[in-house]
Amino acid sequence: MDVIPLSALQHFLYCPRQCALIHLEQLWAESRETAEGRILHERADLPGAGTRKGVRVATAMALSHEAFGLIGKADVVEFHSQADGGECPFPVEYKRGRPKAHQADEVQLCAQALCLEDMYGKPVPRGALFYGQTRRRKDVVFDRGLRELTLKVLQGTRAMLESRQTPSAIYEAKKCDSCSLVDLCMPQCISRQRSVQRWLMNAVE
């Protein structure tokens, strides 16, 4: 079974075509937004371990889940002390901007929790998303609904990647205009071509 990067789940839920362009066709383009995100990640991208306010912290921690075929890394994993003397992993993912209406960020974080549960053999009930624009954390509870959505997205991502087929472009201004791959994807052009093809097919029927 081929492994799937954790980031692919976030890309797939946001836009399956974006996911395919990045993970199948190996395309990438930098934008102001992606540059800001890269800068935000620079500190967390340095592997290391330490203690912060009495909490053990690991940065750029490698993650994997053998059964699910997932691999990647967590920006930050805090290890919170428990009453029984053990520690509970608490993943923290850094994102630019602010919280979004869709759940792509939450799914990526939940997938990290699934990996941590597999690696440490204990439940990981919560984590957090840190947004650069608000400079605040958003707590995320890994409830049944989010876990089911994450597994559904994983199945969809795997099916698409195994098909080796890049989905057709569907132009959505709110998503497409803010995507760094918009010039490579050309959603408006491709969508117009498909509309013309449908019109011609209907005209000759």
Automatic annotation (TrEMBL):
Name one molecular function that GO assigns to this entry: metal ion binding
Q: Does the keyword Transmembrane helix apply?
A: no
Which keywords are on file for this protein? Antiviral defense, Exonuclease, Hydrolase, Iron, Iron-sulfur, Manganese, Metal-binding, Nuclease
User: Transmembrane segments in this chain: where?
Assistant: none
- Write down the InterPro entries for this protein, in alphabetical order: Cas4_exonuclease (IPR051827), CRISPR-assoc_prot_Cas4 (IPR013343), Dna2/Cas4_DUF83 (IPR022765), PDDEXK-like_dom_sf (IPR011604)
Q: What class of enzyme is it?
A: hydrolase
Tell me the Gene3D superfamilies matching this sequence. 3.90.320.10
Q: What is its EC number?
A: 3.1.12.1
Functionally, this protein is described as follows: CRISPR (clustered regularly interspaced short palindromic repeat) is an adaptive immune system that provides protection against mobile genetic elements (viruses, transposable elements and conjugative plasmids). CRISPR clusters contain sequences complementary to antecedent mobile elements and target invading nucleic acids. CRISPR clusters are transcribed and processed into CRISPR RNA (crRNA).
Q: What is this protein's record name?
A: CRISPR-associated exonuclease Cas4
